[in-house]
Amino acid sequence: MKDTIAVSGVPMMGGSWVMEGYVPEFDATVVTRVLDAGGTVAGKALCEDWCVSGVSFLAAKGPTLNPHNNSHSAGGSSSGCAVLVAKGEVDMAIGGDQGGSVRLPASCCGIIGLKPTHGLVPYTGAQALDPTVDHLGPMARNVKDCALLLEAIAGYDDGLDQRQNPTIVGEKYTDALKFKTLDNITIGLLKEGFEQDNSEQVVNELVRTALQKITKMKATVTDVSVPLHKQGPNMWLCMGHQAIADTMLRGGCFGSGHKGFYSISMMDAVGRGIQSQADDLPPPVKSAWMLGEYMKHEYRGRFYGKAQNLRRLLRAEFDKVFQEVDVIAMPTIPFRTPELQRKGASISELVNNGGNNLTNTFTFNLTGHPALTINAGFIDGLPVGMMLVGRMFDEKTLLKVAHGYEQLGQ
Questions:
Q1: pTM value > 0.85
Q2: Nearest to 318 by CA among 188, 407, 209
Q3: Annotated catalytic residue within 73, 78, 101, 107
Q4: Is 77 a catalytic residue?
Q5: In this predicted model, what pLDDT tens digit does every residue of 300-319 receive, in sequence order?
């Protein structure tokens, strides 16, 4: 379990010294469901400090090393989960994803990582950033295990999670893997996903080659375009910075104004830590917090509100494309996995290098569409992820396409 997910009696830090010493007295709903399904919780996995990083150098207890090359990033913020799965130390893991934090480390470590449709998996009992972008999702070495874990944890949580509609139900996702061809599937290559300012041609070519392989299973591949996709990071950052200040830090990871479950013990632990040792927060967290406070007090929250309004337009634009295709594809990260941040890096380097790999992933936390990353191949011995995005609550099709690609032997 990512160390933002409560496991009763097990210390929980959320990657930060600020939370050190907190021991939850309850299990998050996903923990209960894994245990009820016969699974074993092996322990907690290291994550980035308050999850404010897409790489793996920010955790309080030190960097997480890429299992394919220890000098490179393992991705973030569910870094430990991805490494443990990739090295075979656990069969599966559950990570958290507010901006890409399941998909980024899964991409860097060469495993499967799924951010489900928003609300499909209950977030009850996990540290929150903002309820409109919070997701928990499965991570595994193969698509079947990913589908199996999703079966165990998906479904309505009896009103405890404000992110869920009462009509939400889980499905038998492993049934989607019983097929011989993908002859009724159309995959759209998102033009903007291959044209980010930090896109590398070598990554684009590898992902396009991987997608062409899927045509061997009779899937159709075509080009699609959603120009607003490139504004996804700007929308997320306007919303996310204020949410970091309001919900995550000042709100004790639960915020206010909803009827869901509140962990009083966690809220107390966060509040005490922030009051007594805020200086232990790393520069990227401090920077995000200060910017969030500035945006709220100087602009009265208008940019948070504008971002939330624009997200509906962003989702509608993708829903239009999904009338023509079943799945949308692009690189998970537009560039090759970077080396770990050097010791003694400046504050500017720490802040600027912690989130430049989220340019394709941010969008789908805003829209809520399910998004899965699978390894497209290797460059210089390091994995490169291919992200597949599906219609709302159509995880079965995503898993089907990913499994089809997996059967081709990558």
A1: yes
A2: 188
A3: 101
A4: yes
A5: 999 999 999 999 999 999 99
CA distance 55 to 334: 14
Q: Where are the alpha helices (DSSP H) in 69-200?
A: 79-86, 103-109, 143-153
Q: Which of 9-13, 83-87, 350-354 has the lowest mean pLDDT?
A: 350-354
Contact present, 365 and 135 (Cβ < 8 Å): yes
Locate 396 and state its tokens: 């079965």
Angle at 211 between CA 187 and CA 328, to 5 degrees: 30
Closest residue by Cα to residue 286 from 3, 65, 62, 16: 16
Mean pLDDT of the chain, nearest integer: 97
Q: What is the pLDDT of residues 136-169, one digit of tens each?
A: 999 999 999 999 999 999 999 999 999 999 999 9
71 part of the active site: no
| Closest of 68, 71, 64, 75 to residue 382, by C-alpha | 68
The per-residue pLDDT for range 345-384, each reduced to its tens digit, is 899 998 888 899 999 999 999 999 999 999 999 999 999 9
Exposed / middle / buried, residue 286 (Cβ in 10 Å: 0-12, 13-18, 19+):
middle
The three-state (H, E, C) secondary structure of 118-133, written as one string: CCCCCCCCECCCCCCC
* Candidates 77, 78, 263, 287; catalytic one: 77
**C-alpha separations of 274 from 241, 289, 292 in Å:** 17, 11, 15
Contact yes or no for 138/399 (Cβ under 8 A)? no
Percent of the chain with pLDDT over 90: 97
pLDDT of residue 410: 54
DSSP readout, 276-307? Answer: HHGGGS-HHHHHHHHHHHHHHHHHTTHHHHHH
Active site residue 2: yes
Longest dimension (CA), the chain: 60
Task: Report d(CA 227, CA 302) in Å as an integer.
Answer: 24
Q: Can you state the angle between helices 201-214 and 395-407, rounded to 10 degrees?
A: 90
